[in-house]
């Protein structure tokens, strides 16, 4: 009876603290991280796990998360770049996501844009999700299936926001609109509305934001998104760009391969819509500004 009781207590401990079984360096790292709340000590054990080949993929990802929490983001980036080669091919996409999050944390916008474009090119070539049509994702402890189509829209939304950070509103508008054509949602619509406001195109912005307030898009049940759309609508009534604002906007930053690949996806996923946005025609006027 005592053996069974101890076994139940041990099982309950692992369930409550989400610590894996075993006594290797990775398990000791998770114990330090989740039970002892010793983040620095956890990093030491994560390094030992990586060097010992003990669950390298999980150790590398978890260590990056802890380093990010401790504002050691640059160190986390170098660690992921240096040791991702020890991880299997199936882990590379998720490691890219870790890097993108780290780039965002420390303001490396150019690196973030380059990696997001790389992920989109993998989709164009049919290499995303290791060739499968869906993947299992996790959010707030729940698992769910994500399609390549949904992932493409998500990446485009992130790319649009990255362009917003560089005040490249023309490029942001292109990818936000493409994202909405592929898999629309209220949050990306808010971002598109803000992008249009930044270009002093208030009537267009109000039209986009009104769709969110009217709950006409997926994601309308998120009250934070609805409130944000309402706030932006009010701002659109009063916001005025500073003198010379429009003339200072950077040009497009979309290379030919990126545009052509995206257009091919639109042929499949949005065949009934007008796929070539007017702004794409402006690319011809910005050839010398495109990033290769």
Describe the structure.
Keywords: Coiled coil, Nucleus, Repeat, TPR repeat. This is Protein SULFUR DEFICIENCY-INDUCED 1. It comes from Centaurea solstitialis. It is found in: Nucleus. One of its GO terms (cellular component) is nucleus. The protein is mainly α. The protein is built from 14 helices and 2 strands; from the N terminus they run H-H-H-H-H-H-H-E-E-H-H-H-H-H-H-H. The protein has a two-stranded antiparallel ribbon with strand order 1-2. A hairpin with a 2-residue loop joins strand 1 (134-139) and strand 2. Helix 2 packs antiparallel against helix 3 (39-52) and helix 9 (169-182) runs antiparallel to helix 10 (186-198). The longest helix has 18 residues, at 148-165. The termini are far apart. Mean pLDDT is 82; it is low at 7-11 and 273-292.
Largest sheet: 2 strands, antiparallel
Kindly report the average pLDDT value: 82
Strand content: under 5%
Give me the number of helical elements.
14
Shape: globular
> How is the largest sheet built, in terms of strand order?
1-2
Roughly how many Å apart are the termini? 69 Å
- Structural class based on helices, strands and sheet pairing: mainly alpha
Number of strands: 2
Computed Rg: 23 Å
Order of helices and strands: HHHHHHHEEHHHHHHH
Low-confidence stretches: 7-11, 273-292
Helical content stands at 55-70%
InterPro entries: MS5/SDI1 (IPR044961), TPR-like_helical_dom_sf (IPR011990), TPR_rpt (IPR019734)
GO cellular component, one term: nucleus
Protein name: Protein SULFUR DEFICIENCY-INDUCED 1
Keywords: Coiled coil, Nucleus, Repeat, TPR repeat
């Amino acid at each position: 009876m005592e053996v069974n009781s101890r076994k139940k207590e041990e099982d309950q401990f692992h369930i409550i603290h989400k610590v894996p079984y075993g006594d290797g360096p990775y398990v000791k790292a998770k114990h330090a991280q989740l039970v002892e709340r010793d983040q620095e000590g956890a990093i030491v054990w994560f390094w030992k796990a990586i060097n010992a080949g003990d669950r390298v993929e999980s150790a590398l990802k978890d260590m990056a998360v802890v380093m990010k929490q401790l504002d050691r983001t640059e160190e986390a980036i170098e660690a992921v770049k240096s040791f991702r080669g020890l991880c299997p091919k199936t882990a590379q996409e998720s490691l890219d996501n870790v890097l993108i999050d780290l780039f965002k944390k420390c303001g490396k916008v150019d690196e973030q844009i380059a990696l997001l474009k790389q992920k989109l090119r993998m989709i164009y070539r049919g290499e995303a999700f290791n060739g499968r049509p869906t993947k299992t994702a996790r959010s707030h402890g729940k698992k769910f299936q994500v399609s390549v189509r949904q992932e493409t829209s998500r990446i485009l939304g992130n790319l649009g926001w990255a362009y917003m950070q560089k005040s490249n509103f023309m490029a942001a508008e292109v990818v936000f609109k493409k994202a909405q054509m592929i898999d629309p949602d209220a949050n990306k619509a808010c971002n598109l509305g803000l992008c249009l406001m930044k270009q002093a195109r208030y009537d267009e912005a109000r039209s986009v934001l009104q769709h969110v307030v009217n709950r006409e898009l997926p994601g309308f049940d998120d009250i934070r998104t609805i409130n944000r759309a309402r706030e932006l609508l009010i701002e659109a009534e009063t916001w005025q760009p500073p003198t010379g604002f429009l003339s200072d906007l950077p040009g497009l930053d979309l290379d030919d391969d990126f545009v052509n690949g995206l257009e091919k996806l639109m042929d499949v996923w949005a065949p009934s819509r007008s796929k070539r946005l007017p702004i794409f025609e402006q690319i011809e006027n910005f050839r010398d500004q495109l990033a290769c």
